[in-house]
Structure formats: C-alpha cells, structure tokens
Amino acid sequence: MIFQLDERLVFPDPHYGESDGLIAVGGDLSVDRLLLAYSYGFFPWYSFRDADQIRWYCPMERFVIFPKEIHISHSMRTLLNKERYKVTINKDFDGVIHECSKLRIDENGAWLGPDMIEAYTELHRQGFAASVEVWEGCNLVGGLYGVNLGNAFFGESMFSLVPSASKIALILLAQYLEENGGTIIDCQLETPHLRSMGGRFIPYDDYLKIIRGEG
C-alpha cells in the first residue's frame, strides 16, 4: 500500500508498505519532515527528472554496518598505513555532495538533483548532516555524506575519484563512530562493495530500536 502525504508532518506505519520498501509519496523535503522521516527509518529516493512527487521508502529488512564490525582488508590496511590520503570530517560538505551528484547525474533515474542537494545542505547547516572527505594533497578525491541523528548515521551517497577513496571514508567514519558512541550505519541499499566491508541485513523492528536508542 502506498500512502499520499500532505502538509501534515506524519508518516504511515511502514509495515504496510510495498515489498521494495516504498510506503508513501508527496510531502516535502523540509528539515522537520526529514528529521521525522529518519527517526523512523524513512528516506526519500526518486528520479528528480521523472517523478512528479517525492517517493519515501522504509524497507523491512535494513542493510547496515555496525561500526565495530567494519571489515578492513589487508590491502586496505596497507593503503591506510601508507598515509597517502588525509581524511577530514565536515571540512567540505558542499564539495562532497556535489561530487556525489556529478557521479551519477547523467544516469537514468538520477536522484541527487538540486532539490535534494538544497535539502541536505540545509540539514548540514543545522547540524543534522555530515560529510567525510578524503584528500590527496589539496584535491578532494573521495568521500561520503549522510544524516546523523543521535548515535546513528544514515548514509546517503559516496564517491571516489581514485581507487578505494570511498572505502577509506567509510572505514574512518566507522572508526570515528565506534570511538564516539555511534551504534549503527544505515546503508539503505545493499551493494557488493558494502557487503564486503561488513554490511548485513537486520529486521526493521530491531533496526528501529537501535536508531531510537532502545536497543
């Protein structure tokens, strides 16, 4: 079942959604709506060129990485030990989100368009979204961004302009979260890349307890 949202800041019970997690359309990308959405595991995902309304998803099986379970391969350890790249947090959110957008902007179904960029940039300005940057010298060569609420980080997108830069960003994010009380990284979608780094599925009800600090 797909629900139609209006101006009210409410979301339906995600247990009634479609098998792919689609649960609602409509609404807006205001800070208040986005914060409410993420606090229950909802996220917007839609082709900005084709969709006439925002589409909201909340899958019942959640693909996540627990920071303490991040897998660092031998080759990645070797690369990190070389200290070829510098990693920062929240030094260039604008650069990261625009590089993530450019990476897929010409693809069919591209979702990171101007409205999404504006919405997440405002979340960042208000302290609810963060970026991890990977630098080679003065050049931004990789990174990721997402929403941070409480002890949970909801990953949105990542990019690499050199091999393994996004993996470096994810590893350093996991290490930072583990050192600072972070409990979970929501990956939203399964990929071989994320599975190889420790990603796994957990049921939505377990996931909800964790992101709301109850588990």
Describe it for me?
A 7-stranded mixed sheet has the order 6-7-8-9-10-5-11, with helices on both faces. A 4-stranded mixed sheet has the order 1-2-4-3, covered by helices on one side. The chain has helices at residues 31-39, 74-81, 93-104, 114-125, 165-179, 192-195, 204-211, and strands at residues 3-5, 22-26, 43-44, 55-57, 61-65, 86-89, 129-136, 139-149, 152-160, 184-186, 200-203. By secondary structure, the protein is of the alpha+beta class. It contains 7 helices and 11 strands.
What descriptive keywords fit this protein?
single chain, 215 residues, alpha+beta, 7-stranded mixed sheet, 4-stranded mixed sheet, 7 helices, 11 strands, 32% helix, 27% strand, globular
Give the total of beta strands.
11
Radius of gyration, CA atoms, in whole angstroms: 17 Å
Measured distance between first and last alpha carbons: 28 Å
Major pleated sheet? 7 strands, mixed
Adjacency order of strands in the biggest sheet: 6-7-8-9-10-5-11
How is the secondary structure organized here?
Layout: E1 3-5, E2 22-26, H1 31-39, E3 43-44, E4 55-57, E5 61-65, H2 74-81, E6 86-89, H3 93-104, H4 114-125, E7 129-136, E8 139-149, E9 152-160, H5 165-179, E10 184-186, H6 192-195, E11 200-203, H7 204-211
Parallel strand pairs: 1-2, 9-10
Antiparallel strand pairs: 2-4, 3-4, 5-10, 5-11, 6-7, 7-8, 8-9
